[in-house]
Amino acid sequence: MKGNPSDTYTITLDDDVMVHQIIERSTKIRTVGMKDPEELLAKVDELHPIAVFIDIHLGNGRTGLDILPNLRAAWPFCPILVITGTPAETSIVKALNSGADDFIRKPLIPDEVDARFKLRMADAAQKAAKEVVEFGDITIDSAHRTVEGPSGKRFASPIEVNLLACLANTEGAIVEKDALKMRCWGQIKVTDNALHRKLHAVRQLLKDVSDNVVIETKYGVGFYLKYLGQGQQHLDVAS
């Protein structure tokens, strides 16, 4: 399975093959069935699902909750629905706090699966439609992960486009370092070096599309996006 972006499919992470079949029949959309959360994480960059179904309690003591923040960071607009065979509210609350959009209880009822899937797909479409941000002379399209300016258009990774959109949405106000980490990586712990590497990549991306929009650093505080305007020069004080 090569994860062709033009191919429409969902992903189901569950150690019960019957669950994969029920979800595929219920939604009438092909599902890529997986049993191992580590396998899913290893392929996350090459997969482009329209929705993900994750069982909270997998076999051998494994849980789908552990990878939820990673999946949310990789697929910010993809509906994630958790599946649970236990009524424990703590697991459901933890799943929702970790990035899940909804939950479905076992045994699965096809009509309920389809209804919740369609509802979350509609929510995701509305969310994506709002995620087109203009700043200076660039346009950031988070749904399609593109950044466009006078010099051209570039595709960006999910974290890169989230980072840039977060800065653009503040309209030039400083975003603190920890807040930027939370917005881009969720509950995943990342180092300052990882953040700076990603900022460096976004700066390079900006240079490809515009000479007028730059990321500035307020040392010890955070970062902000600045529009220089035509004819102004920029002194790069951060890397």
User: What's the number of structural domains?
Assistant: 2
Q: Largest sheet, order of strands side by side?
A: 2-1-3-4-5
- Major sheet details: 5 strands, parallel
**Fraction of helical residues:** 25-40%
Distance between the termini: 38 Å
Question: Which helices and strands, and how do they pair?
Answer:
Elements lengths: L9 E4 L3 H11 L3 E4 L2 H6 L8 E5 L12 H7 L5 E5 L4 H9 L4 E4 L4 H20 L2 E4 L2 E4 L4 E4 L2 E4 L2 H12 L5 E2 H9 L6 H18 L3 E6 L3 E6 L12
Parallel strand pairs: 1-2, 1-3, 3-4, 4-5
Antiparallel strand pairs: 6-7, 7-8, 8-9, 10-12, 11-12
Describe the structure in your own words.
With 239 residues, this protein is α/β, with parallel strands linked by helices. The chain folds into two domains: 10-129, Response regulator (Rossmann fold, 3-Layer(aba) Sandwich); 132-227, Orthogonal Bundle (Arc Repressor Mutant, subunit A), CATH 1.10.10.10. Helices cover 38% and strands 22% of the residues. It contains eight helices and twelve strands. The chain has helices at residues 17-27, 37-42, 68-74, 89-97, 110-129, 158-169, 177-185, 192-209; strands spanning 10-13, 31-34, 51-55, 80-84, 102-105, 132-135, 138-141, 146-149, 152-155, 175-176, 213-218, 222-227. Strands 2-1-3-4-5 form a five-stranded parallel sheet, with helices on both faces. It has a four-stranded antiparallel sheet with strand order 6-7-8-9, with helices on one face. It has a three-stranded antiparallel sheet with strand order 10-12-11. α4 links the parallel β4 and β5 (102-105). α1 (17-27) crosses α5 (110-129), α6 packs across α7 (177-185) and α6 packs across α8. It is elongated, with a radius of gyration of 20 Å. The two termini are 38 Å apart. The model is unreliable at 1-6 and 231-239 (pLDDT under 50).
